[in-house]
Amino acid sequence: GAVVSQHPSWVICKSGTSVKIECRSLDFQATTMFWYRQFPKQSLMLMATSNEGSKATYEQGVEKDKFLINHASLTLSTLTVTSAHPEDSSFYICSWPSTDTQYFGPGTRLTVL
Amino acid sequence: GEDVEQSLFLSVREGDSSVINCTYTDSSSTYLYWYKQEPGAGLQLLTYIFSNMDMKQDQRLTVLLNKKDKHLSLRIADTQTGDSAIYFCAEILYYNTDKLIFGTGTRLQVFP
After folding, report:
1. Up-side HSE of residue B61: CA atoms within 13 Å toward CB?
2. CA nearest B53: which of B34, B32, B74, B27?
3. Which helix (H) or strand (E) holds B50?
4. From CA B32, how far away is CA B30, in angstroms rounded?
């Protein structure tokens, strides 16, 4: 099956710093992929749709200047949390679409002190 | 609306069957999915059903879809301790085929 990797798995940073999360599709290419956020004991919430070669599409309530998305290639997308604050602490999961579904990365746990 | 609801918690004894339920409000679903999430991990696709189907069976998993009642269920036969996880149902709507709408998640606990 499809394999999606994320790096890093877990990051702890100080408030005010920026954190970059990478998401790679190892088995297939796609011009569109997705970034989700999951708070403890909650469901996944779509943050944005990343589009290769153009700007990302953000969901309502998600600040585009805070969560910078770069869809560098058909197999790589990055999410940068700029000037992170404790309320940004969450589990960030990426996914790449395939024919009838999406394949999810293992997630990145961000803890902002 | 795009609400997808699940019960929060289910506990079963090893070897019994588990039934996880999901209700949704938007009848425009094309595909409905069940994902499994183990602690600290991403989501694993378990199975999915197309909206014109009533049932799908895949080894220990049986998915039932009642479109009239907008109700989806996942039955796990012979539940094992390794099945302990959070289970999410999700739907894709025909008019927004990129967006997965996730349920609230059901935590399944299997005890010996």
Report:
1. 18
2. B32
3. strand B43-50
4. 7
Q: Which residues contact B81 (CB under 8 A, 6 or more apart)?
A: B14, B110, B111, B112
How many Cβ pairs closer than 8 A exist between chain A and B?
A: 45
Distance of CA B27 to the CA centre of its chain: 17
The pLDDT tens digits for A4-36 are: 999 999 999 999 999 999 999 998 788 899 999
**Helix (H/G/I), strand (E/B), else coil: A57:** strand
Instruction: Convert the pLDDT of each residue in B95-106 to its tens digit.
Output: 666 678 899 999
> Cβ distance A45 to A37 under 8 Å?
yes
Q: Which two tokens stand for residue B21?
A: 């339920």
B40:A107 CB<8 A? yes
Q: Which residues of A touch B43 (CB under 8 A)?
A: 44, 93, 95, 104
* CA-only gyration radius of chain A, Å: 13
The mean per-residue pLDDT over the stretch A77-100 comes to 92
